[in-house]
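We were asked to recover a plausible sequence for a given structure. The inputs and outputs are reproduced exactly as logged, with field labels preserved.

PROBLEM: sequence recovery
POSITIONS: 330
GIVEN STRUCTURE:
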């Protein structure tokens, strides 16, 4: 793809072209905006080809079994992204064993959203620079489409910025999975084909993967645009009930930007957070432990307007119980 097309795809075009000259010449150059030596059509083509393959839904049978398979593969892989990639690898909001950690990485990897370390590193950059010009995917600084998927289609974010994830650098099995991040997804595709033939592959794997892409991506795009703000975070993150349902709890994005290391993003009982409930269920069996939650101080810090009603009652109840919680983040 020619340079003009790259510039069309990239809102960072001017700064990137200077970054391309020499990373050594620019000590402050951020690694996540480095380009790798492959043209943009190479980085974008798997994603585009998968979308084009959607036309196959008109050529295979639709049965309730494959529709259930589609829903099933959506839900557990969404949990792999939210409970694994996001809340564990990016934010370390709970603890687990090395074996279960790898299981979570595999689960997230089967969503074909690159490796757990690549994902976590870029996500940490998002939090570090939210809604500023160097946020990898701010809809305010770029465009809706760039924040939704343009930043992934570009070749600016292909490599894993290891500087952002020093805590994972010594885990060889995660580095290996990060390198061969497509393996879990391909295994799942083959399993779907063996289970229900072409219908299983198309509906159980392809359709659910595409839905999973855009469900996840709404958090980078829509949840910085639409919804309510409870906390005065420096960014424009929003709480959005519909996105929370779609993404198993990630839609409470303003809560999350306020208190990033929390295992629960729905802070109150009526803020549905399915991923957190799955994590809680895992904790009953000893698979995960030390789930971090905001204490009363964190819940009431930087409020845009005072809590009222059931939220206020819940904070008072938690304070009375002296819920265990870490020091709130600034
Ligand atoms: Zn965000
Ligand atoms: Zn986050």
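RECOVERED SEQUENCE:
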């Amino acid at each position: 793809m020619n340079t003009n097309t790259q510039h069309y795809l990239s809102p960072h075009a001017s700064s990137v072209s200077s970054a391309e000259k020499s990373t050594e010449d620019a000590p402050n150059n951020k690694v996540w905006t480095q380009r790798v030596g492959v043209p943009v059509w190479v980085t974008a083509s798997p994603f585009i080809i998968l979308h084009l393959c959607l036309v196959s839904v008109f050529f295979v049978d639709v049965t309730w079994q494959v529709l259930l398979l589609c829903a099933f593969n959506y839900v557990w892989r969404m949990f792999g992204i939210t409970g694994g990639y996001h809340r564990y690898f990016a934010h370390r909001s709970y603890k687990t064993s090395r074996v279960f950690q790898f299981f979570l990485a595999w689960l997230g990897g089967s969503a074909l959203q690159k490796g757990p370390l690549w994902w976590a590193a870029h996500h940490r950059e998002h939090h570090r620079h939210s809604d500023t010009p160097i946020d990898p995917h701010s809809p305010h600084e770029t465009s809706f489409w760039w924040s939704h998927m343009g930043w992934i289609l570009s070749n600016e974010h292909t490599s894993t910025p290891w500087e952002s994830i020093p805590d994972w650098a010594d885990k060889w099995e995660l580095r290996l999975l990060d390198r061969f991040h497509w393996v879990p997804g391909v295994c799942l595709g083959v399993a779907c084909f063996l289970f229900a033939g072409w219908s299983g592959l198309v509906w159980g794997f392809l359709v659910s993967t595409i839905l999973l892409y855009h469900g996840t991506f709404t958090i980078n795009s829509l949840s910085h645009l639409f919804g309510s703000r409870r906390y005065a975070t420096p960014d424009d993150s929003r709480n959005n009930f519909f996105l929370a349902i779609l993404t198993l709890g990630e839609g409470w994005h303003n809560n999350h930007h306020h208190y990033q290391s929390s295992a629960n993003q729905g802070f109150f009982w009526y803020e549905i957070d399915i991923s957190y409930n799955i994590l809680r269920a895992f904790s009953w069996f000893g698979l995960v432990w030390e789930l971090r939650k905001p204490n009363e101080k964190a819940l009431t810090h930087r409020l845009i307007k005072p809590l009222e009603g059931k939220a206020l009652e819940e904070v008072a109840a938690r304070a009375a119980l002296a819920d265990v919680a870490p020091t709130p983040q600034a």
